[in-house]
Amino acid sequence: MKRKGILGGTFDPFHNGHMNIAYESLYRLKLDEIIFMPAGSPPHKSDKVITSPEIRYDMIKQSITGEEKFKVSRYEIDKKGYSYTYKTLEYINGVEKNTELFFITGVDCLMYIDEWKNPSKIFELSKVVVLNRPGYNKADIMKKKNEVESKYKHNIIFIDIPLLDISSTQIRKKVSKHEEIKYLVPKEVYAIIKNNKLYI
């Protein structure tokens, strides 16, 4: 049975922190593949201006060229309506036969998982993997992890790794202030941001 990680997000823009998470998850969980899943229309960001899905998809596609164990999916981009994680996992389970799925997310998502659409289904369809993020207390994380595990009767895999303190919000702000971001994003993403005059 193959082991595949699903790493979703808005990826606006895709950055080196995302690559770090993907590699660490690949190694720590002994995965065969990481599937990046850029959101098409995320319901929790319906009130925000988001870069076009095609550009965000292209950022990832160009950044992972040559990476044999990294793939990017168009599923959420091409589907109509909001992108719900449990629906995405249902779809992937339908097309990826004989595969164990690992849904990889940040601790910030763990903190409000009860607000997600059908969280119990997410646990049924995948092993949920939570990675730490800068600014969170480990004791608080463990407390929430235990509460969620008890409620949904499924274990959560917590990966405590040194993370790059990079966020898409930080990058967009830097671009708007004409500050350098070359050290924060893959060179392919840097070119796309410049060529499309994004975030200015």
Automatic annotation (TrEMBL):
A GO term, aspect molecular function: nicotinate-nucleotide adenylyltransferase activity
Main function: Catalyzes the reversible adenylation of nicotinate mononucleotide (NaMN) to nicotinic acid adenine dinucleotide (NaAD).
Any Pfam family hit: CTP_transf_like
Database matches in InterPro entries: Cyt_trans-like, NadD/NMNAT, Rossmann-like_a/b/a_fold
Highest taxon in the source lineage: Bacteria
EC number, as in UniProt: 2.7.7.18
Gene label: nadD
CDD domains cross-referenced by the UniProt entry: NMNAT
Protein name according to UniProt: Probable nicotinate-nucleotide adenylyltransferase
Enzyme class: transferase
Record family assignment: Belongs to the NadD family.
UniProt entry keywords in alphabetical sequence: ATP-binding, NAD, Nucleotide-binding, Nucleotidyltransferase, Pyridine nucleotide biosynthesis, Transferase
Pathway(s): Cofactor biosynthesis; NAD(+) biosynthesis; deamido-NAD(+) from nicotinate D-ribonucleotide: step 1/1
Catalysed reactions, as listed in the record: nicotinate beta-D-ribonucleotide + ATP + H(+) = deamido-NAD(+) + diphosphate
Organism of origin: Clostridium neuense
UniProt cross-references to SUPFAM superfamilies, sorted A to Z: Nucleotidylyl transferase
Residue ranges occupied by any Cytidyltransferase-like domain in the UniProt entry: 6-173
